[in-house]
UniProtKB/TrEMBL annotation:
This is Lipoprotein. The keyword Signal applies. The keyword Protein biosynthesis does not apply. Keywords: Signal.
Length: 290
């Protein structure tokens, strides 16, 4: 079952409802937003976000001891050299970007002592690239640009909460895919199958999150395997609570060269997106943000 920690913001948030543009046999039941049905296509696009908004984005788990304990466990699990490496890089990032929420862990099981980071942008709109090289390099060093990021964190600030909402694909699975075959996940969660664009999809909801996993239609594996893993991970790691909508879109086919594991959530006029080449890496990084 998905568990949450909170983002504390100075911007009041209106109640929003998002939609997912699905490539599906049940698409007539789905309301399309202005964003693409494939969330991985939008990370490098320029939706012309506002450059004038000012805000503070810091996460807090102070009112949730379980979330605080989970985050502390993630950080402590890193060897000291790796823990110090990302701490030093985050210090450099905050000197440039101000008080922003950042992952406190690399999400990697090995090699993160050679973690490197580059970024561009400002407090309201930025992109941070996470790479692993043969050795640790200086923060934001040009040579890092030749390394393929295993994860990218992006923040975009828009002129209105409604515009921000349109960047997040959200669906109530039961409404969108009612009548399609279903399967049961743990904790009484019902997930709905769908097929389209050469893939088999499995969709469900937890809290304000819309979740979907897919496998190639010609693959012997079903999306169920990854779906069960995702539910297990989310029992242990606390994600930010979207205000008001968030999406998780994972691919069962994992490639080190492709970042098509996507977590995106709205917080008022801001939208955060983390793409990674591995779904567990993505969850750990987002869960450790503060």
């Amino acid at each position: 079952m998905l568990t949450f920690k909170k983002f504390s913001l100075v911007i009041p948030v209106a109640l929003l409802v998002g939609t997912l543009a699905g490539c599906s046999q049940a698409s007539s039941k789905t309301t399309n937003s202005s964003s693409s049905s494939d969330p991985t296509n939008t990370i490098d696009s320029d939706p012309h976000p506002s450059r004038n908004s000012s805000s503070i984005d810091t996460t807090t788990t102070q009112d949730n001891p379980a979330a605080e304990e989970s985050t502390a466990g993630l950080i402590k699990a890193q060897p000291t050299t790796q823990r110090n490496r990302i701490k030093d890089l985050n210090t450099s990032l905050k000197e440039k970007l101000g008080n922003v929420a950042l992952p406190q862990v690399s999400g990697l099981t090995q090699g993160n002592q050679n973690l490197n980071i580059t970024f561009n942008g400002d407090h309201n709109n930025y992109t941070i690239n996470y790479t692993v090289g043969d050795k640790p390099l200086e923060f934001n060093k040009t040579a890092v640009n030749g390394q393929n990021p295993y994860a990218v964190l992006q923040k975009q600030t828009f002129s209105s909460a409604n515009e921000a909402k349109q960047q997040v694909s959200y669906v109530v699975a039961e409404d969108a895919f009612g009548g399609m075959p279903v399967t049961g996940l743990k904790a009484g969660i019902t997930a709905f199958y769908d097929q389209g664009a050469g893939n088999t999809h499995l969709y469900w909801n937890e809290g304000n999150w819309s979740l979907g996993v897919k496998t190639d239609i010609n693959d012997d594996k079903k999306p169920d395997i990854l779906a069960h893993q995702v539910v297990d991970w989310l029992d242990h790691y606390y994600l930010p609570a979207p205000k008001e909508v968030g999406q998780i879109a994972f691919n069962s086919t994992i490639s080190p060269e492709i970042r098509d594991q996507v977590i995106r959530w709205q917080d008022g006029t801001m939208v955060f997106t983390l793409t990674a080449n591995d779904p567990e890496t993505a969850i750990k990084m987002v869960a450790s943000m503060h």
